[in-house]
Amino acid sequence: MQIHSAMNKNIWAMILLLGLAACSKDFLDRQPKIELTTASALATNENFQTYTWKLYDYISGYGGTPEYMVSQEYNSDNMIQGNVGQQSAYMNHTKIVPNTGAVTPYLVVSGWDFSYIRQVNVMIDAIDHSQMSQEKRDHWRSVGYFFRALRYYDLLAAYGDVPWIDHALTEDSTAVLYTKRTPRETVAQHMLDDLEWAHAHIGDGNPDGKNTINQACIELLISRFGLFEGTWRKYHGLEQADIFLQACKTYSEKLMERFPAAMPNYNAVYNSQTLSDQPGIILYKQYAPNLTDHAWGPKSIGSAAGSTSEVTRDAVDSYLCTDGKPISTSQVYEGHQNMYDQFRHRDNRLYFTVEPPYKVTVGTPNSTWSYTSNPKDAEYIQLMESLMKGYPLTLQLPFCLWSTSMQENAITSMCPVFASYNPTNDIAGATRLGYLFWKQWNRFPLDGNNNSTTAYPIFRIGEAWLNYAECMFELGLFNQQVADMTINKLRPRAGLPAMEVAHIGTDFDLNRDSDVPAILWEIRRERRVELMGDGFRFNDLKRWKKGTYLNKMQLGLYVRNAAYGNKLSIYGGGSEGYVQFFPKPLGWEDKYYLEPIPSQELLLNKNLIQNPGW
Amino acid sequence: MYAIYFNKFVQLRRCIRQCLLIMKLTTLLIVLTMLQVSAKSFAQQVTLSERNSSLESIFNSISTQTGYDFLFIRKTIKKAKPVSIDVKNAELRDVLQEIFDGQPLKYSVEDRSIVVTSSEASVATSKADALQQMDASGKVTDEGGNVLQGATIRVKGKTTGAVSDENGTFIVRNLLKGDVLVVSYAGFATQEIQVNGTQPITVVLKTDQKALDEIVVVGYGTQKKSDVTGAISTVDIPSVLGNRPISTLSSVLQNVVPGLNISIPSGQPGSSTSFNIRGATTLNTSGNSIVSGAPLILVDNVPFNGPLNMIDPNNIATITTLKDAGSAAIYGGRSAFGVILITTKKGLKNQKPQFSISSQVSFARAGNLPDLASPEQFLQSLSDMGTTTFWSGQNVALWRQLYDSIQANPDQMPASGVIYRGQGYPVRRTNPIKDLMGGTVPHVQNNFAVTGGGKKTTYRFAFGNTHEKGIMVPDADLDHFKRYNVASSFKIDLTKWLTAEVEQGYYNEITSKPSDQGFVYYVAATYPSLLPITDSLTANSGVKGINGSPKNIATLSGAQAYKTSDLRLTGRAIVKPFDGLTITGDYTYDNLQSNETYYNRLISVVNAMNFNVSNFGKGIYRLSNQSTLYKSLNIFANYDGRWGDHHANFMVGYNQEENITSGDLISRTNMTNPSQPSIANATGPIIAGDNYASYALRGYFSRINYDYKGKYLLQLNGRYDGTSNFPAGRRFGFFPSGALGWRISDEAFMRSFSPVLSNLKMRVSYGSVGNQNIDSYAYIPIMSGVTPGWLTGTTAYLTSFTTPGLISSNFSWEKVQTADVGIDFGLLSDRLTGSFDLYQRDTKNILALGAIPLPALLGASAPLQNSASLRSKGYDIELTYRNRADKKVQFSISASLSNNKAYVTKFSGNPNKLLNTYYEGQQVGEIWGYTTDGFYSVGDFEEGTLKADLTGGTLLPNIPKFQGENPNPGDIRFKDFDGDGVVFNGVNTKGNSGDLRIIGNSAPRYLYGLRGSVSYKHVTFSFALSGVGKQDLALANTLVLPTYNAYSTIYAYQTDYWTPSNTDAYFGRLYDKGSGNQKFNQRMPQTKFLQNGAYLRVNNLTLDYAVPTAWLRKIALNTLHVFCSLENPFLFDHLPKGLEPGLTSQGEGMQYPFLSKTSFGVNLTF
User: Fold this and answer.
1) Which of B259, B575, B631, B1141 could form an SS bridge with B898, CB 3.0 to 4.6 Å?
2) Interface of A with B in 32-91 (CB under 8 A)
C-alpha cells in the first residue's frame, strides 16, 4: 500500500474536525417551542384563566352533536323527532347495552365518559404547584369544583352510583381504575360539599370577566342539583332527601335576592343575539358570526319535511288557558277539534313554542302572499305580529324558509302541513303530528345559511324560581307567598292570571295524575311549560319516578282524515281523530331509570356491577 | 498527434451498437467485408467539390453526407497528399477509389465505418521506437458487437487509464511499447492486451458467467450482484418508464418490484402517494389502525423528505429496494420498514455533450365514472320508498306526471325545470357527474438533458416540466398539477486521490383543486339524473341565479392551491488515500417550502334540486406556509482487500441528521372584493397560528463483507443509533444484522448442470432494527393551544390549552426483526432469471396509544406504550425472460408476485379480546360482519299485525330479530347462529361475538405485475399490467348502497331493491330518505354486500417507432423515437361502475378516477 504523497495531514485534520463538530452533546435534545409543558403552562392566574376557557365547552348550548337541549326532549313525553325509526329508545325498547362508552369526540351527556373530569382535575391538581396567592388558588379551586360538579350531575343522573375521582389519574392508578362504583350518597355529598366550599371561596363579583362562573352560577347549580337529588331520593325511597331540598332552598333564595326579575318577553330569552345584561340571565352561551355559530336555525327547524322537532298533543294540552285554568276546566277553552280553536285563549308561551295555525294565498313569485277570504286564517298571523312587536326577525307568520330576509323566499301556505299529505307543495314546516316546535326560529344572522348566532340561556332565574317552588312544596312550605315569589313572576308575560293557591283543589285539573297532589301538579305544569324544549323533562320524569308517562301515545292534531286525502294515520282508526305517527310505546321499564354501563367497562373492571335490569 | 475521427454531429448509439468494428485487420477479413459491404451499401451517393484539400476534411464531408465513420490514426494520413476532386452524386465506392488513388494508404469498409491504414509494410521497430511514447486507441464491445460504455481500461502497473465512452471507444495516452492494458467491465471477464503498435484495438469482452457482475447500489456503497446476500431488487428506471405518459415515480413503480406496495389513493393530478414494503408494519400511534409504514427513501444516499411526486422519474437511473433487515439495517432507526435507494442519472467521463429532448402530449379522461339511474327509475324509487315529498316539497307523484308529460312533448322541454305552484321540478334527463368530470384534458410533459464529461470531470444538467390538467371542470382550471424541475450534478477529480462532487436539485410544483371539493362530491354523488346542468336557474321565487350544479359550485367556489418547492444541495468529497480505501464525506442541505392558498368563496346559488336560493362556502381566505429544513452529514470509509481466495470489504461510518419543520397560518373572512381575496382586504377577525417541530438522529455504523472464492458469502452489519424522539437515557440502541450466501452454481459438482442452470445462489439474512418513526416530543406531556367554543365577546376567539396526554414511564424503541431466505437463479444462460424470497417480519414493542384498553375512568387515551407486536409473513417472486440477442424478433417479459399475511402476535392489554381494538391472534384486515339470511317476509309476522304499509307488525315467536330493532318485511334478515332469537354482537369479544363472524379480509393479497416488450426491426411494443388477486371490501356508501343517506340518489346498478312485488331482490327494503330500518339492515357489514376487490389493470400499452439511423444522419440526429401510448386503457374488476379498487372516497363514496390517457410523443438525442 502506498499512501498518496499529496494527501497531507490537513485533510485528515479536516475530517477529524468535521466529526468533532458533529458531536455536540445536546444535538439529540430537542424541546418543543410552541407547545407548553404542564410545568410551564399552569403557573399564574392568567394560565389558569386560559386553561379554564376550554372547560366552558361542556356547556354546549345549542350544541354540536347532539343538540343538548332539544335532543334530550325527544326521550320524553314532550316532543318527538318526526323521522321513521326515531321514536325514543325508551319507548320502543331499542335501548341496548353499549359496547363502549369511553372517549368519543363529542361528549355524550349521559355517556360513561370521564375525560371531562380529567380535564378539570388536571387544573385542580396544578393549583398547589402554582405561583398564585391563596386567594387566587381558592378561586380556581372553586371554579374547578363547579365544573366537576356540573359533569358529575349528569353522571349521577344517568348512572346513580359513579366512581368519585378527585384527581387526575394515570394508568398506574389501579386502585381507582379497578374499583367499585362510589355509592350515590357519597358522590352527591361530595358534590354538595364542593359546591358549598366553592360558593364560599370563589372570587367576588365577576373576577374572570362578564359572563363567567361566579357565585350566582354556583347557587343556580346547587338549586338545580339539590332539587334533583332531593326529589330523586324522596320518590325512589332513598334517605336524607331533605338535606338536598334544603340546599336547594337556601341557595335558590340567595339567587332570587340577586335576580328579582326575569326578561319581560319569553321569546327574547331564546331569540336574541346576545343575553348580555338582560334581567334574570345568570349565564348564557354567546355565539358570533365568523367565530362560533350553531346549526339550530330556521333551516334545521323547518326544512326537511318529516324530520322536524315536534311537540306532542299531551304537551300542547298542558298549557293553561287565559283564565288560568287547564283545558279540562277552563271556561274559555274552545275545544280540540280544530287547531284554530285549540290555540285560542292559551298561555302565550304556547305560541312562542309551537307554530300556530294559519292559511294564506301564496302569490307569484312565491315570496309574496295575501290573506285568504276567511278572517279566521289571519287570526294567528295578526296575533304573532302583535306579540312580536319589536322582534321583527323571529316567530313570524306566514312561515318561510331558506331566505336572507323574511320575505325573500317561498312562503309556506298554511299551518299545519303534513309530511304525508302536502298538496300545496309547501316547502317548509311540514310535520308528522301538526305541532312544529319553533321556539328558536329566527333570522340571526341574515345570511340565509344555517349559521345561527342566537345566544343560548344556560342559567336563568326562571329555572331557579321553578326549582324553589317545587322544593318548597316538597318541604311542605309552599304557599301563596312562595307562589308570588316564583310562578307568579312568570305568569304576566305568558298572558296568564296569577296562580291562586287557595283555588287549586283536586278538581282543578280533571286530567291530573291522581298520584300527584293538585298543587304540586300545577307547579310541575308550570315547570314543563316554561322549560319546554330546554332538556329538563326526561330527568324530571326520572326523579319523580314517572317514567310511565312515556307509555302515553305520542299523538298529534285532531283531524278529519278526509281533509287530508286520507293519508294520515288516525289513532284507533276511523275517519277522524288524533294523528299518530309512532306506534304505541312498548312500555316503560324500571331499568330505564338508570343507564346501562358499557359492556367493555364491565370486562375491564370486574368490580363494576351493571345497573339493575340490564 | 493521434486521433480517432468520428463524425462530430452524428452519434447514433443504436446504429453504432449494430456496427461491427474490428481494427486489427486481417487481409481475409478486409476482402470479405469489402465484398459484403460493397454489395449492399456502396450505393451511397456523394457530392464533392474540393481543391487541394486535406484528406481529413474530405473524410469529414463524406462522413456528413453518408453517415459513414472514418477510423484512422492521424499520424498515418499525415503522409497523404492533398486531394482535388469534383463529383456529383457519385457512388461512394468510386469516390473512395479516387481519393485513395496514389496515396500511401489503404482502406476497408466495416459495416458503417471506413478504416484507413497505412499501405506501407510495418517498419521493423528500432530500439528508439520501443522507447517512444505513444497513444493507444480502441473500442470495447461485447461478444454480440454491442458497444460497452463505461468499461475501465487500466495500464498494468501504472496509475493511468481511461473509461470507454458512449461509443465504446477509448484512448490511453503516453504508453510504452509492451505496456499491458487491463480492460474490465462489470459482468464480463477482465481481459489483458499488450500494446504493440498504433493500430486501433478492438477489445471483445466475454460475459463472465461466474461473476454476473451487475453492480448493485447498497447502503453506503455498491456491491456486485453476485455477492449480494440480502433481499434486494433493482429496477432500471429508463427501461421501466419507457415512453409512458406519467410524471410521478409512484405510477412508474406500481407492482414492478415484488413486495414494494404503492398506494395511489386518487387519480387527481398531483395527489399524494405512499410507499410501503411488504405490507402491514406497525400500529399507528393511536393504536386504532394498523399501518403500512413507509420505507426510508434516499436519493444518492441522502434521505429525501419531500413529497415523492417532486422527483422527476426522467432523472432517475435506478431504484434499489432493500427489503430485509440484512441489507436495510445499515441505515438505522428510520430503515425498520425497508429502504428505497434512488440513484440519479450522472454524466460519464470522456463523453462529448449528449443532448436529449423528449416531449409528449396526452389526452386524459376519466375511464370510469358512476352510472346514475334514469329519471324514471329514480322517481320510481321515491314512490317505492314511500316518499311523498322530496327535499323541501316536491310532490313525488306530481313530479312523475310532469316528467312524463314533458317526455311526451320533448320540444317543450325546458332546460332547467318546471315551476309548478311555487315549487321547481327538474324534468330533463342529465348527467351531472359527466358534466363535472366528463371532459378530456391535455397533459404535457417536456424534458431536456445534457450529459457529458472530460478527462477528469462528469456533468449532467436536466430540466423538465409537466403540466397536467385535472378532469374536474377543466375550463375553470382549478384542478391541475404543474411541476418544474432543474437538476444538475458535477464531479471532478481534483487530484489522483481526491474527487469532489456537487449535486443540486430544485423542484417546484403547484397543485390546485376546487376548495370545497368535498361538497362538490357530495352534490355530484347524491343528486339524481334530473339535476339541471344549465349555468343559471330560476328560483321558486322567480329570481334568476347561478345554478347550484356540481360543476358550477366547483367552478365558483375558489381554489385550494399548494405551491411546493424544494432546494437540495449536496457536496461530496471522495478521498482515496491508497489502493482499496475510499473515504466519502457528504453534506446535504435541503429546504422544502410549501405554501397553501385556500379560498372558500361565499356563493349564492339556486339549489338545483329544490329551486331555493342558498349560500355555499364560508368566504374564508387562508394562507399558510410550511418549511422543512433538513441537514445531513455522512462520513464513511470503505476498504476493499483481497488475500488469495479471501476477499473482504470493511465499511465504517458516521451519520447525523437534523430536521426542523415550522409553519404559520393566517385566515380571514368577509372579503371586501370576493373576486380578489386577500388578508388585507378582508374585514373578518384575523385567525393565525404557528407550529414547530424538530428531531435529530445520530448513528455509528459498520459493515463487513467477506467471501471465500466468491462462493461463500458473509455480511455483518451493526449500527448504534440515537434519536431525539425518545427521552434521555433511552435514546440509543444497538441494532445488528447479518447474512449468509452460497453460490451453489460455482461448486464443482454443479458444473454438469451449467448449460441449463447457469446461476444458483441461496441466501439467508436476519436482523433487528429499531423504529423511531413517531412524532417529535411524544415523550413530553405537552399542551397545545386550542380555540374553545366559548366566547366572552363577539369579535375574537379565546385561547386555551389542550389537556396534556398521559405519558408512559416505559417508552422506547420499537424493534423490527426480519428473517429472509432467498434464492437467486438463472436458467438457459441466464435468459431466464429470477429470485424468490420468503420472509417473516416481527415488529415488537409497538408504541401505540390506547393499545391497552383502560377503563374509561382514566379519562384519557391510554399512554403511548411499548405494548403490541405484529408479525407479517410472505413471499416475493420475480421472474424475467429475455430471448437470445441474435434473434430477429426481440422480446422480454418480467413478472412479479408478492403476498403476505399479517397477524397481531401480542396485544397484552386486551386479554378479553374485545373486537373494537386489536387482540392477540388477529389477522390484519379481518372483517367482522353478520351473515345475510335473505329478507323478512310477510309470513314472518303474526297475521293481521302488519299495517297497510307493511310496518309495525309483530314477529312470529321463532323468527330472530336484530337487537334493539323492529324489522319489517323486506328488511334484511341475519343468521342467528346461537339461536337465542336475537341477532347481536354479544359482548363484542372474540369469545362472545354473538352472531358476528369473520366474513372476509380487506388486506390485498397476491399482488402481481407483468411487463414485457416485443420488438421487430424499428418497432417496439410494450405493455405493463398490475393487479391484486384477492381482497374483500366492506364498502358502505352512496355508490354501493341505494339511498344510503337522506336525499341520496340511486345508481343504475342499485335499482333491484325489495318491494312487495319484487321480493327476490338484491338490495333490501328502502325507506323514505334512507331512514327507518335501513341503518341496521343495509349498512351493517354483512356477507351479502361484501365486495370483491380483486382486479387486473392494464397500466400501459406503448408502440414505439425508432426512426432508422440512415434518415437521421441527414438531420444531424442520433436517435429519434416517435411513440403512441395508452395509459390505464383497461380495468377488469368486480366493483360497481365508478368505483376502483385502491382509490379512496373523496366524498359520499365517490372517487377521483384514474385517468385514461392517450399520448403521443417524440424522444430524440443528438
Assistant:
1) B259
2) 32-38, 41, 50-54, 56-57, 59, 83-86, 89
C-alpha cell at B1082: 343495509
Residues of B whose CB is below 8 A from A28: 696-698, 722-724, 731
Q: Do B858 and A603 touch (CB under 8 A)?
A: no
| Closest by Cβ to B698, choosing from A28, A173, A569 | A28
Task: Please compute the mean of the pLDDT values over residues A569-587 and round it to a whole number.
Answer: 89
What does the alpha-carbon distance between residue B482 and residue B511 come to, in Å, rounded to a whole number? 6
* A116 at interface of B, judged by CB pairs closer than 8 A: yes
Q: Do B808 and A171 touch (CB under 8 A)?
A: yes
- Asked if the Cβ–Cβ distance from A408 to B541 is below 8 Å, we say yes
Task: Report how far residue B325's alpha carbon sits from residue B821's, in angstroms, rounded to the nearest whole number.
Answer: 12
The burial of B947, by beta-carbon neighbours within 10 Å (0-12 exposed, 13-18 middle, 19 or more buried), is given as exposed
Q: How far is A141 from chain B (nearest CA, A)?
A: 17
ipTM, interface predicted TM-score of the complex: 0.90
pLDDT at A18: 59
Cα separation, B254 vs B252, in Å, equals: 6
Q: Determine the Cα–Cα distance for residues A45 and A132; give it in Å rounded to an integer.
A: 6
Distances (CA, A) of B358 to A167, B242, B244, B904, B1127: 69, 11, 11, 49, 18
Among left, alpha and beta (phi > 0; psi -120 to 50; other), residue B219 is beta
Contact B800 A286 (CB under 8 A): no
Nearest to B613 among A89, A92, A402 (CB): A402
* DSSP assignment string, B271-333: ---EEEESS--EE-TTSSSEE-PPPEEEETTEE--S-GGGS-GGGEEEEEEE-SHHHHGGGGG
Which residues face B1067 on adjacent strands?
B1057
**Residue type for position A282:** I
Q: Considering only CB atoms, which chain B residues are within 8 Å of A96?
A: 963-964, 984
Which has more confidence, B213 or A359?
Answer: A359
Give the integer Cα–Cα distance in Å for B627 and B692: 9
Q: Tens digits of per-residue pLDDT, B768-805?
A: 888 887 777 888 888 888 888 898 888 888 888 888 88
pLDDT tens digits, B877-897 = 999 998 876 678 888 999 999
Give the Cα separation of A499 and A484 in Å (integer).
8
B526 to chain A: which residues are within 8 Å by CB? Answer: none
Tallying the residues shown for chain B, one arrives at 1166
**CB spacing of B855 vs A430 below 8 angstroms:** no
Question: Among partner residues B394, B780, B965, which is closest to A37 by beta-carbon distance?
Answer: B780
A312: cell is 306532542
Mean pLDDT of A250-272: 94
* Any B CB within 8 A of A106 CB: no
Q: Are the Cβ atoms of B800 and A50 closer than 8 angstroms?
A: yes
Q: Chain-wide mean pLDDT for chain B?
A: 84
Q: Are B425 and B610 in contact (CB under 8 A)?
A: no
How is A449-505 classified by DSSP, letter by letter?
A: SS-B---EEEEEHHHHHHHHHHHHHHTT---HHHHHHTHHHHSGGGT-PPP-GGG--
State which residue of chain A sits closest to B858, comparing Cα positions: A169
The answer to whether the Cβ–Cβ distance between A85 and B1077 falls below 8 Å is: yes
Residue with cell 474490428: B22
Range in A151-155, A362-366, B518-522, B523-527 the model is least confident about: A362-366
* Nearest CA-CA distance, residue B635 and chain A, Å: 8
pLDDT higher at A15 or A612 = A612
Which one, of B533, B304, B567, lies nearest residue B433 by Cα?
A: B533
Among the partner residues A85, A427, A603, nearest to B912 by beta-carbon distance: A603
Burial class (CB in 10 A: 0-12, 13-18, 19+), A2: exposed
Secondary structure (3-state) at A522: helix
* Residue B260 φ/ψ region, left for φ over 0, alpha for ψ in the -120 to 50 degree band, beta for the rest: beta
